[in-house]
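Z., the sequence and structure:
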Amino acid sequence: MSKLNIILSAIVLILLVVLGLFFWKPNFLTDLTRPCYYAVYLTSGDLYFGKISWFEPHTLTDVRMIQREQASEKDQPVLSLVEFSKSVVWGPIKELELNEKNILWISKLGDDSQVVQLINKK
């Protein structure tokens, strides 16, 4: 096969895949461009929320974490969602590079998630 035939075959294959995606899932382009929040649980026991980049290295942006505050010993602990960059004294930027070996699980959060609703309020 000539190089031209290979290139044309690749273009046709890509077009068929895109066309198939339009029929199988009509809103796949808006899903790709719409910012989605994910929960990422690490082997250290840390749980982070943010927008994830799937390219190596995995990067979490707009990072949030749960912080527990307790007013007194009698009171129940109060949980709040805080920005990662504001929750620690060393002042990191709003981006967190993840080591793939330390990720136990990743879960996409729905729009009706309490975490997503809290993030969108701010």
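The chain has a mean pLDDT of 81. The beta strands are 38-42, 47-53, 59-69, 78-83, 95-97, 103-108.

Let me know what you think.
H.
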